[in-house]
Specification:
The protein is of the alpha/beta class. It contains six helices and eleven strands. The structure holds flavin-adenine dinucleotide.
């Protein structure tokens, strides 16, 4: 077991790397541990991040890591998954899946969030390529295309209306009878948004993309 670090950072996505940068500039002895499953790893490009618009997610991380090399008090470990954390006399003790132990006076958790795409068979093949969750990240590249807005809750209506800023070729897919009231259905129709209430059984397509015919691909 090595001497305790001043800080342990769990997670090497943009948040963890940014924290490491600041702590490195403060000359703190820091160990960053990362299991390598950044949230947007399946995406081709980062959108809307000033100075890095269009950059591949891995490229963004590579640049971040390169900048960290200038700071000698920082140490990065890849392919390390932390499975437990507890208080100890020096501060915190972390254990990895392979049984390694790390000690640090402070602990910074930057493990991000995990997305839960709807449980439609096939969706995982397209997530981040033809299936998206954020119009501000990916909407611009899909502008003027046919877009199916999937969801069973009332929030889906708001999302469909919001998407009219990106395309007029929209279809709300409620996967069974939706929860929309008559007034909401009228609002959809008035905005030119089609409504499909059939049950969805699978998502099909080629090359990581759903069929370009849009809603019909579901
Ligand atoms: C498909 C998709 C497209 C996106 N597109 C955009 C976009 O265009 N523009 C934009 O600004 N944002 C986009 N985002 C959001 C962006 O990915 C997140 O805002 C960003 O990744 C958050 O950074 P983070 O460091 O908090 O988390 P993450 O990037 O998820 O990094 C967390 C890191 O912690 C590691 N980790 C987790 N648990 C452990 C553990 N127990 N032990 C060790 N390491 C661990 C993970 O492996 C990962 O490397 C997109 C997200 C998705 C899903």
């Amino acid at each position: 077991m090595s001497a305790p670090f001043e800080a342990l950072i769990v997670g090497g996505g943009p948040a963890g790397l940014s924290a490491a940068l600041l702590l490195g500039r403060a000359r703190r002895r820091v160990l960053l541990l990362d299991s390598g499953e950044q949230r947007n790893r399946l995406s081709d490009r980062v959108g809307g991040f000033l100075t890095r618009d269009g950059c591949p997610p891995r490229g963004l991380l590579r640049m971040g890591r390169q900048q960290l090399r200038a700071y000698p008090t920082l140490e990065l470990r890849d392919a390390v998954e932390i499975i437990s954390a507890k208080f100890c006399t020096v501060g915190f003790q972390l254990c990895s899946r392979t049984g390694e132990v790390f000690l640090g006076r402070k602990l910074l958790i930057a493990t991000g969030v995990t997305d839960s795409p709807p449980p439609i068979p096939g969706v995982e093949r397209f997530y981040g390529r033809g299936v998206f969750h954020c119009p501000y990240c990916d909407g611009y590249e899909q502008r003027d295309k046919v877009i199916a807005v999937y969801g069973r809750s009332k929030k889906t209506l708001a999302l469909a209306l919001e998407l009219t800023g990106w395309t007029s070729r929209l279809c709300l897919v409620s996967d069974g009878a939706g929860q929309l009231r008559p007034a909401q259905r009228r609002r959809l129709a008035a905005s030119g948004i089609a409504l499909r209430e059939e049950r969805i059984t699978a998502l099909k397509g080629r090359g990581g993309l759903p069929r370009s015919s849009g809603p019909a691909s579901i």
